[in-house]
Amino acid sequence: MKLEVISKSENKEVQNFIISQIRDLINYKNLEPGDKLPSERSLSDKFSVSRSNVREAIQKLEFYGLLKSIPQSGTFVANIGVIAMNGMIDDILRLEKPDFKALVETRILLELKTARLAALRRTDEDLKQMREALEAYSEKVLNGKDAVQEDLLFHLAIAKASGNSSLNTLMLMITPEIITNFEKHHVCDKGMARSGIQEHQDIFNAIKNQNPVEAKEKVKVHFKMLYQYCYNIE
Amino acid sequence: MKLEVISKSENKEVQNFIISQIRDLINYKNLEPGDKLPSERSLSDKFSVSRSNVREAIQKLEFYGLLKSIPQSGTFVANIGVIAMNGMIDDILRLEKPDFKALVETRILLELKTARLAALRRTDEDLKQMREALEAYSEKVLNGKDAVQEDLLFHLAIAKASGNSSLNTLMLMITPEIITNFEKHHVCDKGMARSGIQEHQDIFNAIKNQNPVEAKEKVKVHFKMLYQYCYNIE
DNA sequence: AAATTAAATCTGGTTAACCAAATCAAATAG
DNA sequence: CTATTTGATTTGGTTAACCAGATTTAATTT
């Protein structure tokens, strides 16, 4: 018990501590899927932390599908065995903050897929939203203005057109981190944005013409510079 | 204001209501990156909801990188313009719960990539963990036992070996949903698990031999049945 | 003794009071 | 008039009291 070392502001540390304690509890008590965890109050008492800290930790494990809270009843181990539970909790505890390179790598992967799927599945409504985003982007760039936001919205429109809400969510989650890093590293220069108009137009046309191969190819072209950059930094 | 329609348990509705209100506020007041939002108390007062509801909504927007809370100071608009803010908030509000088909589609995409990267980057320690997971899986299957968990841990070990923490996180997030759906739809039958041993071994060997092309190919084989299933249901 | 009911207790969720740091305003010193 | 200090206020975060529903226990009735 090294809790006294942890300062108040280091919330993450407390949460990880509680999560590891819950893992140990599940192991020691051989809790199986469907079994009930001790109440939040008794846990906060046992671990010598506040109940709200316990709640946050439980909510995080609930987000990853490992626990399930039922009001006025209790918190239950999800339909997942003790082995997988251990493996996943260890992974969750080990999760580092992704670096920029990893983010870009993931983004390109997702974009290649969403563009291909969008070419196969886009509706007319999807197409309309993509066109609007594209026009807004072009206008900004041609007027010499910053167009990072419009660029982003175009790509999110593609993700939406992919018809895969799971992919759409993942794109949404990594997008903000991408933006802040773009601005920090000054990735998007003026020249890039100008050539970007044609590249966006090419992607749009491929999706409009329902040509998945070309859509993927054009996205690859669009990210080529970025790819090189990504593998050069740090 | 249609709040009286919303029952207490429909927390999601309340949260989405608050999020849309915050979006309107940002638009109406022309809040730009770095600007401060009204305090949680005044927001809860203005929207006629509890402060904890406001906090949850803010935390969700913080998760997507749109807001940033600073203790004893305030909540601030992230380094993202009003246009992108609107687009992303609309996307967040529209996000449906992903269907199983979308999940499997995403999983295969991620697995193909992580296997390829793992072949390129795996360390000896990664290899060791993968081998342990593989052996645990084989033993269970050969003894005629259920091995869903061990299967999962093998794939998570690959994700870890990819050296991309971003991809690793995404895999972790979609995994629990996959498992529950697998069990619900009875995807993994006994016969499948038996042939799975060789398939896992092939993937492992490709990664061990640092052959990214073969690794990707073997994963594709492994998911072939699943792919067909995925495109047949519902 | 079994079935039913009623009361007491536990549960996660919610609300409100409290905290300490940060901010702002005014007063004071130079 | 400027710079500094001091005190009051505002902030997000934390804690504790409270709530309603679920669960368990005990009492009552048949």
CATH superfamily of the largest domain in chain A: GntR ligand-binding domain-like
Rg of chain A over CA atoms, rounded to whole Å, is 23 Å
Strand portion of chain A: under 5%
Count of domains of chain A? 2
Q: In order across it, which strands form the biggest sheet of chain A? A: 1-2
What can you see in these coordinates?
Two copies of one chain form a homodimer. Chain A contains eleven helices and two strands, in the order αααββαααααααα. The N terminus of chain A is likely disordered. Chain A folds into two domains: 92 residues, Winged helix-like DNA-binding domain superfamily/Winged helix DNA-binding domain (Arc Repressor Mutant, subunit A, Orthogonal Bundle); 131 residues, Four Helix Bundle (Hemerythrin (Met), subunit A). A two-stranded antiparallel ribbon of chain A has the order 1-2. In chain A, 71% of the residues lie in helices and 3% in strands. With 234 residues, chain A is mainly α. The first copy, chain A, starts with 10 loop residues before the first helix and ends with a helix. The radius of gyration of chain A is 23 Å and the shape is elongated. In chain A, α9 packs antiparallel against α10. Chains A and B meet through α4, α5, α7 and α8 of A and α4, α5, α7 and α8 of B.
